[in-house]
Amino acid sequence: MRRERTFIIGTSGYSFDDWIGTFYPPQTAKREMFAHYVGTFSAVELNFTYYRMPVPRTLEALARKSPAKFTFWVKANQELTHKQNRAVAAEFVEGISPLRDAAKLAGVLMQFPQSFHRTGENRKYLASVIEDLSAAPLAVEFRHSSWQAQQTLASLRERNVTLVVPDVPAISSLYRSPAAATTPRGYLRLHSRDAPKWYAGGSKRYDYSYSQEELRQIADEWAELDEPLDEVYVFFNNCHGGQAAQNAQEFQRIVSSL
């Protein structure tokens, strides 16, 4: 049974030189990319915050330059997710405060590496960092298959943390899940379905374009999910050569006809 729900669609990042001529018009300058992006999509994942700590003035400028109902998911810094350094949590929360103050912060995306297995120690760390970042709505993406357990979903529901469902290749060690939700928000990240390229290094992992048939199947699965979802965030991370933006636009067309 199809359920009426809102799909909020965007891409993982927006500032890519190889999107010029594929998504952005030819000769688009970097400073012009965001203005073009917000004319097409209503949300974005900010990925630069993974590599460097967010600076309030930078995010205040993005909030000011975006439309009134535009929203941001901010990727947690690698110190928090990959290096397990909770000491930077307060700085991170302060850095994203302009988005929260502008009512444009959808939440913080915590994407953990494949080396982050479901062990007792890591479960304790996850609970602690969730508490550290509790000033914002949170979403968690797992990469290792050991997190595929009902206890994982139950724990996220208890803490009101959104599960991120990653669309990834059929590799046994990767976390894979059908459409699922632990809060009234669904969260889908589409990376690639090309198994041979997943460990090839660099941008090759995300060099994949979803077919219209694949996108329609994904849309149907989420539309038919028997959960009381208010909205589903959908972000394309197959950013190589503008494929993410192109697939996101096609997905918008598909869900608009559901």
What does this structure look like?
There is one protein chain. The chain is α/β, with parallel strands linked by helices and 258 residues long. The protein has helices at residues 30-38, 48-51, 56-65, 78-81, 89-95, 97-101, 120-132, 150-159, 212-223, 243-256; strands at 6-11, 43-46, 71-75, 105-111, 138-141, 162-163, 165-167, 185-190, 231-236. The strands form 2 sheets. Strands 2-3-4-5-6 form a 5-stranded parallel β-sheet. Strand 4 (105-111), helix 7 (120-132) and strand 5 (138-141) form a beta-alpha-beta unit. The longest helix is centred in the last third of the chain and has 14 residues, at 243-256.
Mean pLDDT score: 96
CATH architecture: Alpha-Beta Barrel
CATH class: Alpha Beta
Helix/strand-derived class? alpha/beta
Poorly predicted regions: none
Order of helices and strands, N to C? EHEHHEHHHEHEHEEEHEH
Count of discrete domains: 1
- The percent range for helix content is 25-40%
Give the total of beta strands: 9
Name of the CATH superfamily:
Protein of unknown function UPF0759
Termini gap = 12 Å
Compute the number of helices: 10
Quote the beta fraction. 15-25%
Identify the overall geometry: globular
Query: Any idea what the radius of gyration is?
Result: 17 Å
